[in-house]
## 1
Amino acid sequence: MQYSIIQKSQLEGALRLDAEYYQPEYLNLISKIKGQKSKVFFGKLIEKITHPKEIKREYSDRGYIFLLAQNIRPGFLDFSEKRYFPEEVAKTMPQNLLKKGDILFVRTGAVGDVAVYFGKPEKVLASAHVLIARPNFKVSPYYLMIFFNTKVGKNLIIRGTYGALQPEIAPNYLKRILVPIFNKKFEKEIEQMVFNSNELLKQSENFYSKAENLLLEELGLKDFKPKEELFYIVNLFKIKSAHRADAEYFQPKYENIFNFIKSPIKKLGEITKFLNHAKQPPYIDDGEIPIITQKHLGKAFLNLEAINDPETKFTSREWFKKYPKYKLKDGDVLYYSVGAYIGKTNIVFEELEATAASFITIIRPTEGVNSVYLTVVLNSIIGQLQSEKWQSATAQQYIYPKDIKNFKIPILPKPIQQKISSLVQQSHQARQKAKQLLEEAKRKVEKEIEKALHEKE
């Protein structure tokens, strides 16, 4: 049994009296920061912390980007999934608008994820699930962001969470966190590492964009725009064959796209050796094997850093060994088949000790089709239109594996497939290097904290 005894003077007034807040691990972190030669409350390093106004979710095709909590990753912003608000709506809520250098904290849910807004893309509106800390630039906001992503900083944030079902963090608590301050040279070094990481992320986006463009150019779809028909006639035989009577399923746009494609086309079921939704693993509190869900899916690559989030569920190694075909493998294509993100597809680029939740369909192509190429196709307008077509006409939208097997996949020559795959792999490598730089920056700050503590002793 672990316990701690604290003096009445150590209690923070009547603000917190719960034992969790005063557990030894947290008290040790506080001692570490207090032991630093130079430290200052976070509230002294910012102009204000803003809790953005709640907005009714009515998205548009263009306008201001709407920053959701899931766009905030540890150390960087992921805009691979974008939602937009009309400009006229955005301008009515200036407190939600981001400025370059703003430090962004996930307020509820995955509390502890922190990133900085670099000023690009422009015109970004934050959701109410985010806290915006506007820096006064006495200390680099990029250094502050890295500190809050270290083990010390992140745990100090988590210490302040409240609420059992949906943990939250309050602005006033963040202001009271002590931040260690080092010399300007070290601060600039950390800042430069963050800048370099951001440049690598831009390179990653550029490589993936080139892969998408190459696919569309080779298929003759560079300028294709799907056209929504107001009315159309469907043969009764087709309705009976499809076992569907909803008008949306028969929209001509879903078939018109294939009129532009000259390459051979095969059904997905014909080019896969395995295609099925994962078997739902049981959630085990002390399990060792992470379960991949929608929160781990990015635009094309798994967000493996999200495995460390408190919301990640785990299962047992015994279950994992019992169902080996659901162990994720290098080259697996993961297709999200339920809910708002139907069609989101990721490639597994490494051997993982992980499995997937049942609403993720695992696709393993035959040797004749490149897995990375298939991922790009499914994420493109070709895959997304078919995802729209085949989803069930019910409140909880779902696509069954038997229907995913009917997806039409254009088969480009192997050299083109390989070229597209190479661009995506370069994108992944740049992304990995960006994350490694952030990890290195975190380690440097953690090392400096320990070093300053020992020097004082």
Note: The chain is about 35% helix and 15% strand.
## 2
Amino acid sequence: MPTIGPYIRRLIQHVQPLIVSNRAPLSLVPADPIRGEREQLVRGSGGLVSAMLTLANATHAIWIAAARNERDRILASRAEPDGTATLRADDGTQYRVGFVDIEHEAYDMYYNVISNPLLWFIHHYLWDLAREPLIDASIHRAWNDGYELVNRKFAERVILEAKRSDYPPLILFQDYQLYCAPRIVRQAIPNATMQHFIHVPWPTPQYWKILPSSMRNSILHGLLGNDIIGFQTRRDVRNFLLTCEENLALEVDHRDQTVFYEGRAVWARSYPISVDPREFQIMAEHPSVATQEKEILTWRPKHLILRVDRTDLSKNIIRGFLAYERMLEQHPEYIGNTVFWAFLQESRQDIGDYRAYLGNVVGLAARINHRFRERNWMPIKLEIDNDIYRALAGYKQFDVLLVNPIYDGMNLVAKEGMLCNEPNGVLVLSENAGSHDELGQYALSINPFDIDETADALFRALTMERGERKRRADGIRRTVHANDITRWIARQLQDIRELTPQ
């Protein structure tokens, strides 16, 4: 866990931080007596949880989260008289969590109908607009009885915790599942200090018009209940300001990045999220990583191209495979001595589009392998697993790291992988990834839709001279070390202190 310095501690003294997100920081893995395994509390996956764990641990914040399933409800049942459950991770860190109890059908509509895929697809420009989405009575019901209801329940729990604290509340909302909650909290606690960080890209005003005006306006009114709204990139800030100006006809100051709303100034700022280099170095030295590296070396060819991703449609896995196929067509000298290793984690398999996409990924890899395979060699090594130590071992070994999302808020793989890599591998990076703002000058930039350009970038990366590889890799490592997770937190807290009423 990163160390929070005295400066940051001073920024948050005499306030009660409340972190509000859909998912709790830790997940329960029940004991398995047959296998002799004890109960564990493991860190949730994803950049949001990893980033906010740092702040929660350092400030003793209360984390408000949904009781999403039976395992979360078991943890919620262990709450103390004040209504919060103290969860202790294996590394000894403790978190106070206030679980929001939500009826199953309402949560399903809120999460699996509205948040994913409807809002997620809007944020990542994924809708095939000639065919989808269909905004019908079922969507309106899911919005009213799912998304808005769950947001109201979150807001009620935040209000409860804020009002019983001895200190002024500092409320930190996270991401796209909770857009409507801040306005409700603002109405109940007008002097609350609230910030909302959005981890996904913010699309153009026109793309928001996929949603009926009642829904998209509720999203903006909800967000504007905050004092500060944080985004990953300057492009996201610009799109948000334009959305407020064009879709709600609000007064906006683009120079000061401010929206004037109901007599208040609401600030929009970019805070590119990052990782903790020290923690990653410690994890990379874990014995399990060394074990996985030994296994990788038994099959690793001369050239190794790696991608580590969730099987989300936004990650653009299929075009990455097609670009690799194109490279092999154009440069057959790489047949037999190069492997594209796709280490993937299943994503949202309860949603039909995601199941179909995973099937397409598997089918395309099989076709390319059938076309090019030779004795004792296949061009694509496809693994679907969720093993952080194996991912770290892959990070240490690659020659080329392909990160080609259609759109991404940040994409921490680009930062994590380059931190750990030992051969000074080359980053091939989509210009639509949030991380491109910081790392693009050292990466090989690609248009994620252009198969030939991506194929050319893969070839260029494999043939790049050693000195150039090292210069680029060192530049990325310097950038990530300088802009680490602690700086991400510090910049937000500094703006909260300077821009919000005290």
Note: The chain has 19 helices and 18 strands.
